[in-house]
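User: I've been trying to design a sequence by hand for this structure and keep getting stuck. Would you show me what you'd pick, starting by listing the structure so we're on the same page?

Assistant: Good idea, let's start from the same input. This is the structure you sent:
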C-alpha cells in the first residue's frame, strides 16, 4: 500500500512539473533555438523536479553559479540576487521565467556550447541526445572528469527519454 502511494506521489509530482514547465520551455526554445526537452531535462535534474531549496526559495532551476542582475521597472533600479549553496554562490531569480531565460543566455552567449547548435540539424531523440551530450561536456567545466560528464549526460537524457520530453521540441 505504501509503495502505491509513493508511486502515485512520484508520478503526480513529475506530471505536475512537466505541466508547469512545458510552455515556458517551448517559449525559450523558440527564443534561443535550444530544444524545449533540454530546458526541461536539465531543469528537472538540477532542481530535483522543482523540489530543491534553490528552486523553491530562489527560483534557481539550473544551478548556475554567480549573481543575477536584472532591471526592476517598479523600483526603477537594477537588482542583484544570489544565494549560497554547497557549491558556493549561485544565482537567484525573481521568478522561473528569469531562470529559464538566463539558462538560454548562458548557453547561447558563452561560446562553449556552439557545437550544440549543430545538433539542430537532427530530429527527435537524436537531436535531444546530441544536445544532452554537448551540454554535459561543457556545463560541468573543462576540468570535470569524463566519467562525471557521461553520468550527467545519462541523467539528463534519461529524464528526457523516460518522460517523453521530445514531444515539446
Amino acid at each position: 500500500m505504501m509503495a502505491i502511494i509513493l508511486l502515485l506521489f512520484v508520478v503526480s509530482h513529475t506530471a505536475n512539473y512537466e505541466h508547469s514547465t512545458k510552455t515556458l520551455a517551448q517559449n525559450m526554445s523558440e527564443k534561443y533555438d535550444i530544444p524545449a526537452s533540454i530546458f526541461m531535462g536539465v531543469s528537472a535534474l538540477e532542481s530535483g523536479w522543482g523540489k530543491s531549496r534553490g528552486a523553491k526559495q530562489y527560483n534557481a532551476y539550473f544551478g548556475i553559479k554567480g549573481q543575477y542582475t536584472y532591471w526592476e521597472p517598479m523600483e526603477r533600479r537594477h537588482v542583484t540576487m544570489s544565494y549560497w549553496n554547497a557549491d558556493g554562490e549561485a544565482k537567484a531569480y525573481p521568478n522561473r521565467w528569469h531562470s529559464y531565460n538566463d539558462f538560454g543566455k548562458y548557453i547561447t552567449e558563452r561560446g562553449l556550447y556552439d557545437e550544440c547548435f549543430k545538433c539542430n540539424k537532427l530530429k527527435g531523440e537524436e537531436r535531444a541526445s546530441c544536445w544532452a551530450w554537448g551540454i554535459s561536456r561543457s556545463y560541468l567545466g573543462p576540468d570535470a572528469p569524463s566519467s562525471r560528464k557521461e553520468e550527467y549526460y545519462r541523467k539528463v537524457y534519461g529524464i528526457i527519454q523516460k518522460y517523453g520530453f521530445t514531444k515539446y521540441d
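That's my pick for every position. To get oriented when you compare it with your attempt: The two ends are 37 Å apart (CA to CA). The chain is about 55% helix and 10% strand.
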